[in-house]
# Entry
Amino acid sequence: MKTDVAVIGGGAIGAAIAYFLRTHPRPCEVAVVERDPAFRLASTPRASGGIRQLFSLPENILLSKFGLEFFADFEHAMAVDGEPAPIGFTRGGYLFIVPPAAIPVLQANFEVQQRHGVDVRWLDPAGLKAQFPSMYVDDLGAGVHSPTDGWLDPSSVLQGLRRKARAVGAQLVTGEVAAIECEGKRVRRLKLRSGETIEADHVINAAGAWAKEIAAMVGLTVPIEPMRRYEHYFEPATPIERLPYVKDVNRLAFRPEGKGYTGGVPDLAEPRGFNFEVDHDYFERVVWPAVAHRFPPLETLKLKNTMPGLYDQNELDGNPILGPSGLENFHLAAGFSGHGLMHAPGIGRAFAELILDGGYRTIDLARFGWQRVVDNKPCRERGIL
Ligand SMILES: Cc1cc2nc3c(=O)[nH]c(=O)nc-3n(C[C@H](O)[C@H](O)[C@H](O)COP(=O)(O)OP(=O)(O)OC[C@H]3O[C@@H](n4cnc5c(N)ncnc54)[C@H](O)[C@@H]3O)c2cc1C
# Structure
């Protein structure tokens, strides 16, 4: 088989890239190769589904802004043959809360967010208490609330994107990439485990937590590691006021879901690897104390479910690596480190620009390129991730 662009990995990133390549004014042929169309271990269906503009880097703010626009209209825009694609998009807002020592960082980020047109509201502890009466605020310095942020159902996004990508002409190939053949400084063809080959002008590595394995097939070492992170679902004994997606001190992050909440506490010290075991004490040890401290009325909550998933953690700086990497037509679209779902639409559009327009047109993502890896120059988010 021969195509213009072969995308390795059919999760949110791969599917979004395919959709935007096909819907560009000068579209190209695209094949998305996915080894497991049930997405049993993929990160996308295991995500929490949060979309926030509360970043410090303009690139991340703008990617989220576009993500919000795209997801707000997703149900209709991704309809196929008149059948809508509901994703449970909820503009429930985000809330970052920090201790007094972190106020300067929160303030600096707040100013960048304002400059980029984000609806952000500064709340002091009294303001937090007035809006969220169940919150313990005595150890807090301030909070930033972004009412236009929100969340959605990640599995529905994945299914909707894939269905639409196929409808607009992307080929969704089931197969495992086992090797990549190069000629000189260019990638030439993918070899699948089945023996099939796919010849392509561009290859995009959108294999998420497996991106390092794919990069190794062309002799490239990338600083992207699989990092386990749990998503817990828990229910309160008695309901409290409606909460936004709360990001607390020490990485506690959770949001309303059904009768309860979904979220967790990512542990950056977690040993890297493809580990899908569940440590059943983790919630009791780490998550419950953090939730009960911040919202005392939730201390009698009941844990209902724990799902492990993998971050494609970029060890250099926690931001994605995008565009040509090592070889001129071998692109990375990985290393999203926990933001890949919210940024998938913006990344899809960016790759369509990169490949079909010859460069970024809407959001300049050059700072997220491979060169910073070569130069060992991290481009980090400031403050809380
Ligand atoms: C618990 C948890 C919570 C999260 N919460 C959020 C959140 O609130 N908001 C947010 O934006 N992000 C969140 N994330 C991050 C988000 O899930 C990821 O950044 C995003 O899903 C990455 O999408 P992807 O398409 O790159 O990867 P994936 O969905 O993992 O897709 C990669 C695909 O590549 C395939 N593949 C691998 N190797 C091969 C091969 N050799 N051949 C063919 N196919 C291959 C895999 O089968 C897989 O399906 C969370 C992640 C976790 C784990």
In short: The mean pLDDT is 97. The chain is about 30% helix and 30% strand. The two ends are 42 Å apart (CA to CA).
